[in-house]
User: Which sequence fits this backbone?
């Protein structure tokens, strides 16, 4: 226990150590998170009236970000499968960064759901009224929390073993790694079923929503990890092999291609059949009865994803800077497509035919930025602490003495 507490204390101290760029980045995230916390406190006092939500559009930017981040949480599986199923050695030491991202992202997901409830104590209702197994919301609560616990154990165990310079016992984490592969797919599938199962919202009643969720997740998640590895390679001495980046590039290329194909299939179905259920799609892509607030958003998303896909297929992506641009475009495009482009149109028009547009308020936006800042702050700390442990710079005194 003493050794473990020493490990925690050293990690805590290490999280404050860095050059001026690290300190400036952490200061920016901390200030933004505090501004978001202040905005959330105002929302608790005055209620959800401070948001742009209404009786007609009851899910907005909070649930949009939640939906996107659930996909980001599944990013680790695209590193785990090549390493533990196909034995890809270049990615072996980098899997941990995907799992650390999962921990930060799931915590962000929980925070977005909490702020969407209005008052945090309403989370207790999920525990008192689970309605298991009939409620898809209950399933979502279960899979998210179990996936968080799985990654906390895997990351914590592997990092602590590295700190003590001990070989981790495979029986204590390998079975959980394979369980996490299944669980990563389940968290996004269950989230998709939350929307698909709402019969009164025909925009979501499509069998390919779940495959679209997975394809976009397997594109945006590894794209964010590529950016993380590029930062680690540039600003630390930790070795990131080119083979790892090339493998991740191939993964995001295939995943983004499938995502764009599935989107095209859905657009064709909605517009070619011209059914009454296509009103939400008309509102999203072309506008409806003079209302077109989301039209610029979705076409921006399609443009960003198309440019990213073009860069990935051309030899231009061999340039790491252009690869980074493609990843940023991809993340931005999928964030729009799976967020505002998926959630809000499901409520427009309402079942009564009303068209009430939604736009997030300043206070709502500040809360979202605060949660994003907190998540990035947490992820930065986790990565900052992990790198010296994996590289051997931060180790227990006993391990150091034994090596001598």
Assistant:
């Amino acid at each position: 226990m003493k050794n473990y507490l020493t490990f925690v204390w050293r990690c805590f101290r290490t999280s404050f150590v860095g050059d001026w760029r690290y300190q400036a980045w952490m200061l920016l995230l901390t200030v933004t998170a505090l501004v978001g916390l202040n905005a959330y406190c105002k929302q608790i006092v005055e209620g959800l009236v401070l948001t742009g939500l209404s009786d007609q559009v009851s899910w907005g930017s909070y649930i949009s970000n939640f939906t996107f981040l659930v996909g980001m949480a599944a990013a680790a599986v695209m590193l785990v499968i090549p390493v533990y199923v196909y034995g890809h050695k270049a990615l072996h030491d980098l899997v941990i960064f995907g799992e650390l991202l999962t921990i930060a992202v799931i915590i962000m997901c929980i925070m977005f759901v909490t702020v969407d409830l209005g008052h945090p104590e309403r989370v207790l209702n999920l525990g008192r009224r689970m309605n298991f197994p009939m409620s898809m919301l209950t399933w979502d609560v279960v899979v998210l929390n179990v996936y968080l616990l799985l990654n906390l154990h895997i990351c914590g165990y592997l990092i602590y073993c590295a700190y003590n310079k001990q070989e981790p016992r495979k029986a204590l984490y390998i079975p959980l790694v394979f369980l996490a592969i299944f669980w990563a797919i389940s968290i996004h599938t269950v989230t998709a079923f939350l929307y698909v199962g709402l019969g009164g919202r025909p925009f979501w009643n499509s069998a390919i929503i779940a495959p679209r969720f997975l394809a976009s997740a397997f594109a945006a998640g590894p794209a964010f990890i590529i950016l993380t590895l590029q930062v680690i390679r540039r600003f630390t001495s930790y070795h990131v092999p080119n083979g790892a980046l090339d493998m991740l590039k191939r993964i995001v290329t295939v995943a983004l291609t499938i995502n764009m194909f599935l989107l095209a299939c859905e657009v064709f179905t909605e517009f070619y059949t011209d059914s009454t259920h296509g009103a939400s799609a008309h509102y999203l892509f072309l506008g409806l009865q003079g209302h077109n607030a989301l039209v610029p958003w979705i076409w921006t998303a399609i443009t960003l994803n198309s440019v990213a896909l073009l860069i990935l297929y051309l030899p231009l992506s061999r340039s790491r800077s252009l690869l980074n641009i493609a990843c940023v475009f991809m993340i931005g495009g999928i964030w729009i497509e799976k967020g505002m482009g998926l959630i809000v149109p499901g409520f427009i028009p309402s079942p009564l035919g009303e068209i009430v547009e939604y736009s997030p308020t300043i206070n709502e936006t500040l809360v979202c930025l605060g949660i994003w800042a907190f998540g990035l702050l947490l992820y930065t700390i986790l990565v900052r602490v992990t790198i010296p442990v994996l590289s051997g710079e931060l180790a227990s005194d006993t391990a150091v003495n034994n090596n001598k």
Notes: The radius of gyration is 22 Å. The longest helix spans residues 242-273.
